[in-house]
Structure formats: C-alpha cells, structure tokens
Amino acid sequence: MSAATAISHNKPTEPHKSWKKINEERKALKRQRKQDKALKDLKRVQELAASAVNETENGKAASKPNPSTVSIAVPGSILENAQSAELRAYVAGQIARAACIFRVNEVIVFDDVGVTTARETKRIYEQDDADNNGNGAGKATSTVRSSSLQLARILQYLECPQYLRKYFFPLHKDLKYSGLLNPLDTPHHLRQQSKFRYREGVVCDKQAKEGHSYANVGLLNDVLIDKALEPGVRVTVKMEPSSDGSRKQRGTLVSPDEPRRETGVYWGYQVRIAHSLSEIFTKSPYDGGYDVMVGTSDRGTSVQNVPNQSIGYNHALIVFGGLQGLEEALANDEKLTVDDPQLLFDHYINVLPKQGSRTIRTEEALLIAMAALQEKLQPQQADVECDLSDLLPRSEDTGIPMARDVLVSKKKKKKLVDNTESNEIQPAVIATKLSPTPAVPRRPNPFNEHKRAEVAPQSISMEADFEVVSASTGHTAAVNENQNDDLSRFD
Ligand SMILES: C[S@@+](CC[C@H](N)C(=O)[O-])C[C@H]1O[C@@H](n2cnc3c(N)ncnc32)[C@H](O)[C@@H]1O
C-alpha cells in the first residue's frame, strides 16, 4: 500500500450529510448572525441612551444652542414653465431633492408674478398661525397662486416620512404624480427596523393612561408617549430604550429641533408660502429674521470673487428667481420701492460666470449655487458630529422603486404582463381615505385640507377624481378603493 493510500485510509471519514441537514445548519448560522447583530444594535442604542441621560444630568443638553440654519426661496411659478403635469411634479421633486442634498432647513415658496392668468389661477388654502402674523388667532384662509400651492404641497409630501403620509396628505390632484418622484432618502425617513433615538410620529386615536397618548412612529406597535395629545398631531418622539421583558415601547415628546441639535443628523425642512418677494424677508420664523441674505443672478458678482468661508451666518437665506429672474419678482412686488434687486441682499452672486447655455433654469441654478456656496458659507453654530452610520439606513437599505419591482413574485409578474396584454387596467393605485379625525400637524401645514373635507365634501369629491400614478405602473393605473391606502409604497 502506498503512503498516500495509507494516509487517506487512516483519515476519519466525515459522515455523509443530507441537504436537509446542510440547509438546517446554514439557517442556524444565519439565525445566529442575525441575533448577534440585533444584540450589537441593542447595545449601541443603550450606550447612546445612557450618554444622552448623562448629558441631560450634567445640564449639557439643555444649554446646547440650535445649529445655524439655511433657508432657500424659490418661486412657485417655475412649475408653470413645465410642459406637462408629470414634468411639473418632477420639477418640484428636483427642488425637494436639492434641498435635502444640501441640508436646507427651510424652503420658502414665493409668488414672483402677482397677477394670475386664466391658466394659472389662485386657490384658497388654510393659512396657519405662523403665516397669520403669529398672533395665535387661529386658522385663516388665504389665496395663493396654484403653482405655489402645488410646489409647497409636493415639498411637504416628500419631506414627510412615508408611514405618516396617509395621515397628513389626503388624495389630491397636486400629488397625482408624486409616485413618480425620486424619494428623498433622508435620515429621518426611518425604516421599521432602524434603531434610532428619535422618530417622527402621529398621535393615534387610541385610549392611553391618564396624561399619556399613543403615537404611530413607524414601528410595528404604537409607542406610549408622556403627554396627552389630540389624535392626528404630528410629533417628534425620543425613544426610551426598551426594558427587558417589556413589550411596550415608550417615548418622550421632544421639540422637532432636538434630533438635529443633539445628534447632528439632518431632520428635513420646513415649508412656508410667501405671497411676494418682500414676504420672504418679513415673515421669517427665526427671531430677528435672516442675518445673511444672498440673491442669485447671472448679473451678480462672480462667486469666484467671494473668499472661502467669508459668509458667516446664523440664519442664512438664499433667494432664486423664476423665468425672468429676481428683477421681475421685484417689479411685481407692490411693497418694495427699490428698483435694483441687488439692494435687497448682502450678496448678489453669479454662481456660474462662464455658463455655456444662455440661461440656467432655477432648478439647475439651485444645485449649482448650493454647491458653489458650500465653501463660502461659515455657520456660527455648526452641527455636532456623531457617527451614527450603523443606526441610520444607508443608501443600499433604502427604497428604490426598482428594488420593489424585483420583489414582485414571478407569478405576479406574469399576471401583470397578461393583464397589460389584454389591455386590462392595473389596479395598482390608491384611494387615500381621509382620516376620521382631522389631523392637526405639529408643523404649520398650510396645505392640510382635512377640514375642508368635513365642511365641503362635494369639493373633495371633485378633486379626488384622479389617480396617483406609480413609477412601476405608469399611466395604466386606476383607482381601486380596496388597495392599501398608503401613498408611500410608490416612493
Ligand atoms: C431662468 S434664470 C433667470 C435668468 C436671469 N437672467 C437671471 O439669472 O437673473 C432663473 C434663476 O436661476 C438663477 N440663476 C440662473 N443663472 C444663474 C447664474 N449664472 N448665477 C446665479 N444664479 C443664476 C437665478 O436665481 C435666476 O433668477
């Protein structure tokens, strides 16, 4: 017998494993890995919670100032220049994406035209307290250019976490193509499995113990919060680490500024409507208004002449013009008496002195300007830096419409193809039911028409005579009352 054969003969032979056994072992390994990850996440959450408690005890949290803010103003009329309803919505989506990419805290939609035409009329909307000179006199109605209202509504819709949209955005023709828009993918749009200290939520209509209420924060179970609030209110909740053995998740109501202030995480933008150029400046939500105002125009000073980090700010405002620029917006403002827009701003900047097209569209200028101004702006209060990469969803975890298509089972796909071939209409669209209790959002929401639904049901049924078009089904979609009523599944 050769040595090799002897060795192979002496080697203990492994018992033959069936595929069933191999699969079981693999599954067990997978389970183990999942458990390890969950434990790691839990440990991290507990550590963060403990450090937050420490900070509060040391009085540090209370004294932390709010980080500096950036606001942008864009005219609603830019939608009027779009060739179709789909493109109109798409332009609004581009503004929302740019605002998030550059961590903008406030988007002001202003009217740079004033007069209306047969095509572009004004619409009534519910003005909030903030618009109403902040005198707390309650809600009032006002009229606004329809393009401004649509832009503002789409901006708000996209900023709202998907799981809350059905509470705050009843079916509306302005949102018809919202399903085609690219999602914002912001950190505050948390997934169910994300373990982050803060979550956006809505107060539920569910009995809670005295002085408490339940909020839907996008988790499997509602969270018990430490305040008795009216159902429908949008809230920011600080999650308490879940105690062992308790299935009930608890949370504390906090200010919407807190997540960003405490963690440095971008927490979305606010939307405000201004009826004219001057209202951008006069109705600022910040005490003392904006301290640095930047106007943008191809007639401005070259951005290359602005030294890096030379624009110190606490509340910066960057204003963009429409089709005819800021000159036109100024000419259409009855309150402003100056005749040169440059006089309204601390800086009047040309962000691309050697442009190769005769004109740069506002949605393009927005991206160019925000990128060019990054190194020129210097916040007085910078965001705190905190590595939260393992707690917040990364781009590969987030919802891309294509990924959803991939998840459609082969059987379903075949059915879809068959139906299309036989010219059947796909029932892939939602009819959002208005929530039974009118939602009072935490943030001023001038576009909330829940009240109108109660008062004038006829007008809603007129507006509801359309569909929401999803990215995957295109124009073949039709309304089906039985479908899931969450608009977010299209984003
Ligand atoms: C269609 S342009 C208006 C054209 C106009 N001549 C102007 O720039 O004032 C729309 C808006 O995009 C921005 N924009 C366009 N080109 C720009 C540039 N080179 N520098 C800064 N902003 C620009 C401005 O806010 C402008 O109001």
TrEMBL record:
Sequence segments annotated as region (Disordered): 1-21, 238-259
Q: Which chain regions cross the lipid bilayer? A: none
User: Which stretches does UniProt call biased (Basic and acidic residues)?
Assistant: 11-21
Q: Where is the composition biased (Polar residues)?
A: 1-10
Q: Which family does it belong to?
A: Belongs to the class IV-like SAM-binding methyltransferase superfamily.
Coiled coil residues, start to end: none
PANTHER family the record matches: CLASS IV SAM-BINDING METHYLTRANSFERASE-RELATED (PTHR12150), METHYLTRANSFERASE C9ORF114-RELATED (PTHR12150:SF13)
Instruction: Show the InterPro entries listed in the entry.
Output: Alpha/beta_knot_MTases, NA-bd_OB-fold, Put_MeTrfase-C9orf114-like, tRNA_m1G_MTases_N
Q: What is this protein called?
A: Uncharacterized protein
Q: Which domain of life is it from?
A: Eukaryota
One of its Pfam families is Methyltrn_RNA_3
